[in-house]
Specification:
Mean pLDDT of chain A: 90
Strand content of chain B: 15-25%
Shape of chain B: globular
CATH class of chain A: Alpha Beta
CATH architecture of chain A: Alpha-Beta Barrel
Largest sheet of chain B: 9 strands, mixed
CATH superfamily of chain B: HUPs
Helix content of chain A: 25-40%
Mean pLDDT of chain B: 91
CATH topology of chain A: TIM Barrel
Order of helices and strands of chain A: EHEHEHEHEHEHEHHEH
Largest sheet of chain A: 8 strands, parallel, barrel
Number of helices of chain A: 9
Order of helices and strands of chain B: EEEHEHEHEHEEEEHEHH
CATH architecture of chain B: 3-Layer(aba) Sandwich
Distance between the termini of chain B: 56 Å
Low-confidence stretches of chain B: none
Largest interface: A-B, 22 and 20 residues
Strand content of chain A: 5-15%
Number of strands of chain A: 8
Oligomer: heterodimer
Number of strands of chain B: 11
Radius of gyration of chain A: 18 Å
Number of helices of chain B: 7
Strand order of the largest sheet of chain A: 1-2-3-4-5-6-7-8
């Protein structure tokens, strides 16, 4: 199985769609909402990005939603997040299912744990590190699945520069073929510096929630900003600043924002 | 092998409130979850079924809304579910609760093994598992079970965590076990399981249906009384971000830690 190369700088938006949480309440309705968002994004030519137990909250996996809801998998229009909080058998279940469904883009991240989530052990994936991070997971997927997937990794421009560049190099060596930044609310010197020195495609993550304080909570660093935040204006300025990059939209409001940026895509 | 898993719906750890009058937990309007230790009991039951065949029945005593937690257990793969729901059950202590659960185990019939989590995180008593065994009269019970080694000729071999280590003991079946988290790593339920559980039948039994003596239920039938309960003092937390280079930030952190005598 060999993945065809996708031009990751193509000006297709990657839209984050959170999968429904694991709970029985209103399950059918929540699945319907996911189905609607997914189809809306794919029909408009965008790529749907499904998170993996974001913030440690147990949710359904992207591939099982796609299977169960019989959602279309079009080339380059589905990206699955995959983190290190799985059992080895579940990890293979996810990757094997993605392979069968034709899902190629996998964004490999360390992820957020919780008491209800298992964690991959280094011995399970034949590595001698103290714990499994996205680097070890990338290496393991490459080793077992070869070039079946287009693997991506995250770049956290809010972390100290030397530390993050070292991690970036290790991720590339382990098999990452594209990078997704942490949410940006303006130009970033570190991102520009790293992009200028590498041919690895960078996908710029834009923060689409008006709640800018939430971004600080998510990344663990205080983002200096005005009280009011206009995500659409921010996206526009990021598009102007990084015209050659692909964009990943986090926390997009499908009701109020989808039609606005669709016109500009 | 016919296995019963007792689960309890408890308030999410961040939402515990206590009624100042009754000294009981306020359960209305708070997020409810399966008692975390019960996941290990459920997982072990599912693994035993996978090894030996048979069925897993989830059993819970609680209000109607406990049905949510029961459906979650069904999503993991339990075969049957029973909710014990009756106004007479309300306020039962661990003795009254284990009496009700034991009657339900009898009604289910031909049960080989009852599995419980080591304790519920709301009451922290660890008494219901042993209580069920006591009400079942001649059933053995093992607490702190960290491994089930095997089953042979109606004998169950288990490891128990004891002070300073583990011991291995044999129990005749039927038996009751209270398991600890070292016993396994609970699986994550899958969407197919949830979809099946959404429409699964849950048997709801009241005091009459299990043949309970109402004088042995609720506050009146409970030999223990909670005379005072106080919530833990909330710990004040604040976050401080240190600006500057790594060295400057580290220096500022060191200064702050010294001020509060943390180092």
């Amino acid at each position: 199985m060999k993945a065809a190369k996708v031009n990751l700088n193509y000006k297709r938006y990657r839209l984050e769609v959170s999968p429904p949480k694991q709970a029985v309440n209103h399950l059918s309705e929540r699945l319907t909402r996911f189905d609607e968002k997914y189809n809306k994004a794919v029909d408009a030519g965008h790529c749907v990005c499904v998170t993996d137990n974001a913030m440690g909250n147990l949710a359904f996996q992207g591939h099982e939603l796609i299977q169960e809801l019989k959602l279309p998998v079009r080339f380059g229009q589905v990206m699955i997040h995959l983190n290190t909080f799985h059992t080895l058998s579940d990890l293979h279940w996810i990757l094997d299912s993605c392979g069968e469904l034709g899902i190629k883009e996998i964004l490999v991240v360390s992820g957020d744990g919780s008491v209800r989530l298992p964690k991959l052990k280094p011995s399970e994936i034949d590595c001698d590190s103290a714990s499994v991070t996205s680097v070890e997971l990338l290496g393991y997927i490459r080793k077992i699945y070869g070039s079946a997937f287009i693997l991506g990794a995250a770049f956290n421009q809010y972390e100290p520069e030397a530390h993050e560049i070292l991690k970036f190099r290790r991720k590339i060596e382990a098999g990452a073929e594209f990078i997704v930044t942490q949410p940006m609310v303006g130009r970033n010197e570190l991102i520009e510096k790293v992009m200028s020195k590498t041919k690895i495609p960078f996908i710029i993550e834009a923060w689409m929630s008006p709640n800018i304080k939430l971004l600080s909570d998510c990344i663990g660093y205080s983002i200096a900003s005005e009280d009011t935040f206009d995500p659409m204006a921010c996206l526009e300025s990021l598009r102007n600043a990084y015209p050659a990059n692909g964009f990943y939209l986090a926390l997009l409001d499908f009701k109020t924002q989808f039609n606005n940026f669709q016109i500009k895509a | 092998m016919k296995i019963v898993v007792c689960i309890k719906q408890v308030p999410g750890v961040s939402s515990v409130k206590i009624d100042p009058e009754t000294k009981r937990l306020i359960r209305d309007g708070v997020i409810s979850v399966i008692n975390p230790f019960d996941y290990y009991a459920l997982e072990e039951a599912l693994r035993l079924r996978e090894l030996h065949g048979g069925s897993v029945t989830v059993l819970s005593m609680g209000p109607q809304k406990a049905e949510q937690s029961i459906r979650e257990a069904l999503a993991f793969g339990a075969d049957n579910a029973v909710l014990l729901c009756d106004k007479h059950f309300a306020g039962s202590d661990t003795w009254g609760t284990s009496y009700v659960l034991a009657l339900a185990v009898r009604k289910i019939g031909d049960v080989d093994l009852v599995l419980c989590g080591k304790q519920a995180i709301d009451g922290d008593t660890a008494q219901v598992g042993p209580g069920i065994a006591a009400h079942m009269k001649d059933w053995p019970h093992a607490a702190g079970v960290s491994a089930i080694n095997g089953i042979e000729d109606h004998m169950l071999s288990v490891n128990r965590m004891i002070d300073g280590g583990y011991d291995e003991c044999l129990l005749t079946l039927p038996a009751v076990l209270s398991v600890i988290k070292e016993i396994n790593e609970p699986r994550v339920a899958r969407l197919k399981g949830w979809l099946k559980a959404e429409h699964s039948l849950i048997d709801i039994w009241d005091a009459d249906q299990i043949g309970a003596d109402v004088n042995l239920l609720g506050l009146n039938g409970s030999p223990t009384r909670v005379v005072k309960t106080t919530p833990p003092k909330s710990r004040d937390r604040k976050t401080t971000f240190f600006d500057g280079s790594e060295a400057e930030s580290a220096g500022k952190l060191l200064y702050e830690l010294r001020i509060i005598s943390a180092i």
